[in-house]
Structures are given as C-alpha cells and as structure tokens.
Automatic annotation (TrEMBL), chains A, B:
Residues in HTH tetR-type domain copies: 8-68
DNA-binding region: 31-50
InterPro entries registered for this protein in UniProt: ArpA-like (IPR047923), DNA-bd_HTH_TetR-type_CS (IPR023772), Homeodomain-like_sf (IPR009057), HTH-type_TetR-like_transc_reg (IPR050109), HTH_TetR (IPR001647), Tet_transcr_reg_TetR-rel_C_sf (IPR036271)
Name under which the protein is recorded: TetR/AcrR family transcriptional regulator
Keyword annotations from UniProtKB, A to Z: DNA-binding, Transcription, Transcription regulation
UniProt-recorded Gene Ontology molecular function terms: DNA-binding transcription factor activity; transcription cis-regulatory region binding
Superkingdom per UniProt: Bacteria
Pfam families linked: TetR_N (PF00440)
SUPFAM superfamilies found in the cross-reference section: Homeodomain-like, Tetracyclin repressor-like, C-terminal domain
Length: 215, 215
C-alpha cells in the first residue's frame, strides 16, 4: 500500500474510532487513550493526524458533512433525500453518530463547531434551486425552512434514542417531511415526492460509501 | 411563615438553583455543593427534599411539566399555545432550561427520565380533542404529530443556542407551527390560528406563574 493511501486509511480508522467513542461518552468524558485503543493504531499515527482531542472532534464534525445528494428531476426530491439518507446512515455510521452527539453536547460546540450550518446551507441551496424551477410555494424562505428541518432532525434523533419501542428515528424523519412539505411544495409537486422510510436505505446503498469500521 | 409554606418555598428555591446549574454544566459536571451555594439553603434543608443528585434531576424534570394551556375556542389554538408559551418561558426560567439540558444529556435520562413523554401525551390529548371537534384533517395521527413537535422543539432549542445572531428560538418555534399546521388543520381552522411570537409572551404573562429566582 502506498504511503499516502496508508495515511488516508489511518485517518479514516481513527475518525471512526473517535466517532464511536464520542457517540457513547460525549466530548468531556472521552479520552484519547480510549480512541487509540479502539482504533488500534500507534500513538504517533494518531497524533500525526490529530494533535488534540479538539482536533479529533473537529475531524469528526467535518467528516459528517457528507457529499450532496444526487440531483433528481425534482430538486425538492433531492432536498428530501438529504434527510432520508442521513436518517438511515446516522445510526449505522460511527462518524455520523459521533458528530450528532458532539453537536448536542451543550457548551462543547464552541470548541469544535457543529455540522448544522453546513447541513442547513446545503438545504438552503437546494430549496432556492427548487424555487427557481417553480417547485416551491412563493412565500417560502429557503434559509428558515432549511434551518427548521436541520433543527427538527436533530431533536427527533434525541427523542427517538430516549424512547425504545416507539417509532424509529427513520420513521419520524419520514413523517417530519410529510408534515412540512405541504407548506413548502406546490401541490402538483407534493404529490410526486417520495418520503418513504425505504427510500433512505435505497439512497444509502446505491452510493459507493467508504467502508465503515464495525463499532 | 407557616412551616409547610416554608418547606414549599425552600423546595422551589432549591429546584431553581438546580435547574440553573444543570442548564449551565449538564448532569455529570453538576455538584450538589454548587447547587447548595446557589440556593443559599442549609445542607439539611436540601437533603430533606432531595436526597441525591438524581432526585434533584427528577425534581427539575417533573417541575418542567407545567400546567396545561387554557382552553381556547379552537382546541388547536391551545395545542399551539403549549409550544409558544414554553418557547417564551424556557430561556427565562431556570427549571425549564435545566430540564431541557438534562433531557438532551445523552445517557443521563436513563437515570431521571425526560419531560418529553408528558409533553407529547398532553399534545396528543389536545389533538384528539381537536379532532373530535372537527378541526383536524382526517388522516392525522395525534400521537405521531405530537411527538414530532416535541422532538422538533427540542432540536430547535439546541440549534438556536449554537448560533448567535440567527433567528431566536421563539421565532423558530413560531415558524415550525407555520410549517406543520397546514398538514394538520382544516383550511378554515388554519386561517384562524395565531402562531405569532408575540402570543407566547402574552400567554406567559396572563398566567400567575410562580416567582422565578434570578440566576
């Protein structure tokens, strides 16, 4: 394996381990020693990529802003797809779980940010594009609607985690779109949008995602 | 002051102090010593009401489930009022801030619960009543819609906290209702609902709430 390729792989292994430990323990209780143990890399390798716990948290947050969704014929479908795919992947990928936990760790985000502004900005761009294509009701403010969805998504994850046996997180996100889209989409567009839970899995599987470490 | 009255007052002072400290520091970093200092009561008085930190957290959570909103002619207005009033009061009242932080403290709610199930249940009851009065679209599932709103409310609070200068929490909650109600209310009812930010303040002020400790 070429040196550069090895470095990329190490970085990925470390971020997966860091994501898993942050997700389980939160920022303040996490130790670099635990991440090292989980990643199974040398101390030198870890510190080469991430000189501090704060850098590890930043790395996890940055990694959690995934590639944009594929453009569908209806741009509003791409907007919905962002959330459906993330709701499917979040419980399954340590980096995403870690980022979600870090973002909800009050106080701590001052040190390493959250993925929220990027997620919200991406949604805003899609909504504006959808508006330009005439898919969106005229009074919709793309920035506000996108922030609302990012915030709601985050809260639903917390509520779903805390209540075993209730609707799953994925189910709640799908219902969130059903509730919000009538206030966003033109009626003719609304009818064509797929907000089903199953779509999240299809989207996640058709993309060649990086291999995920078991955790 | 009669003994019982003094006991009620002490309990309230302790819960306000506990709410403020939990809100600032989260569950695990909070110490009873800090709450004692903030409350300015004796150790004996505090332990009489709350034998452990876990009991303090439970007390804060229970206290955060406030009295139901006044019944309006449209029951859907009462449903909206719950959230508008809470969004106004939450940043202003230590017990509510503490409960919100505790609920979002992952892992910790296993020890002391969250106010979410009660909030969701109260919303569900109102929605069912509104349905019986013919205010609600026929396909609405009261339990799901209420849980969605509780989860979204929680997430919006986190997002609003993390972004200074953006829309306030109250503003976001008001916009949340604007987005969700078209999927819930019959069109003729929808037109009559007041989701304005100002309504939250009016609701909070017309009720005789307990005096809040400064914190």
């Amino acid at each position: 394996m070429a040196q550069q390729e090895r470095a990329i792989r190490t970085r990925k292994v470390v971020l997966d381990a860091a994501g898993a430990v942050f997700a389980e323990q939160g920022y303040s209780a996490t130790t670099i020693a635990e991440i090292l143990k989980r990643a199974g890399v040398t101390k030198g390798a870890l510190y080469f990529h991430f000189p501090s716990k704060q850098d590890l948290a930043r790395g996890v947050i940055e990694q959690a802003v995934t590639e944009p969704p594929r453009e569908e014929e209806l741009i509003l479908q791409s907007f919905v797809d962002m959330g459906l795919e993330l709701a499917y992947r979040l419980p399954r990928e340590p980096v995403l779980r870690g980022a979600a936990r870090l973002a909800a760790d009050q106080g701590a985000p001052d040190f390493f940010g959250t993925p929220w502004p990027q997620w919200a900005y991406r949604g805003e761009q899609l909504l504006n594009k959808a508006k330009a294509q005439g898919e969106v009701l005229p009074h919709v403010d793309a920035a506000v609607t996108s922030r609302l969805l990012v915030g709601s998504f985050t809260g639903l994850q917390l509520v779903a985690q805390s209540e075993a046996g209730a609707e799953s997180f994925q189910e709640l996100v799908s219902r969130l779109y059903d509730h919000v889209l009538p206030a966003v989409a033109l009626p003719g567009v609304l009818m064509q949008l797929d907000t089903s839970v199953e779509r999240g899995a299809l989207l996640a599987e058709r993309k060649p995602h990086k291999q995920e470490a078991m955790s």
